[in-house]
Amino acid sequence: MADKFDYSKLKEGKTYDVLRPVGRLVTRCAWKVNYVGQENIPEKGGLILACNHLHAMDPLVVAMGMPNRQLHFMAKKELYDNWIINKLFTIVNAFPIVRGGGDKSAFNYAVRIVKEGYVLGIFPEGTRSKTGEPGTAKSGVALIAKEAQADILPVCVYSGDNLKKHTKYTVHFGKVISYAALGLEGEVGKTEIKNAAQEIMAQIRVLWEEGHCE
């Protein structure tokens, strides 16, 4: 099913906003969600939202903390084999990507999202953390940032209770990292790309170390 995703179409629909109340209800039923730093979310313009990954619901929870922006999240291609998930994810701006690199269609689509003024959501680690702590970033986030010349909005999802039902779940939006600060301008190599990805993850870890920000 994922190979039928139409990468030629890029838009934000009203259905996303119509479904926001449902998304908020789902997150409230699952956890006590606390949002911090929402004033750091740019009101307009393309950028990359980079977040650590704890739970399959992370995209929904993060998105519900952005009342004035829609989020376009990458999702692993395997999820699109289910036609119901395929349809739902497409409605809420998600798009499939083959993990492990080499998915040129998804990469170009991600770059286009940013260049056309939208918000791209990405988990730099590429998978969920098994320990709860932010892990090591893969190069993908920096490669997309380089191609799109994108600023980065670092975000941390945190739970001190392994996200058990009805426990506290904090989503912390950090200050935007400018493209210039990533060291990606001009000709760069693998080292600069790797360093930029590590810097993005380091900023996420700083937010993680603040815990629930109480």
Would you give an account of this structure?
This protein has 214 residues and is an alpha/beta fold. The chain has one domain: Glycerol-3-phosphate (1)-acyltransferase, CATH 3.40.1130.10. It is built from 7 helices and 7 strands, in the order ααββαβαβαβαββα. It has helices at residues 14-18, 20-30, 58-63, 83-91, 104-115, 140-148, 190-208, and strands at residues 32-36, 47-51, 71-76, 95-97, 119-122, 152-158, 168-173. It has a 7-stranded mixed beta sheet with strand order 1-7-6-2-5-3-4, sandwiched between helices. The protein is globular and about 50 Å long. The N and C termini lie far apart (44 Å).
Which features characterize this protein?
7 strands; 214 residues; Glycerol-3-phosphate (1)-acyltransferase; 7 helices; seven-stranded mixed sheet
Principal-axes geometry comes out as globular
Helix content: 25-40%
Q: What fold name goes in the CATH topology slot?
A: Glycerol-3-phosphate (1)-acyltransferase
Beta-strand proportion: 15-25%
CATH class: Alpha Beta
For the biggest sheet, the summary is: 7 strands, mixed
Low-pLDDT runs of 5+ residues are none
Q: Which structural class should the secondary elements be placed in?
A: alpha/beta
Please identify, by name, the CATH architecture: 3-Layer(aba) Sandwich
Radius of gyration from the CA trace?
16 Å
How many structural domains in the coordinates?
1
Write the CATH homologous superfamily. Glycerol-3-phosphate (1)-acyltransferase
Q: Could you give the count of β-strands?
A: 7
H/E topology pattern: HHEEHEHEHEHEEH
What is the number of helical segments per DSSP (H or I, 4+ residues)?
7
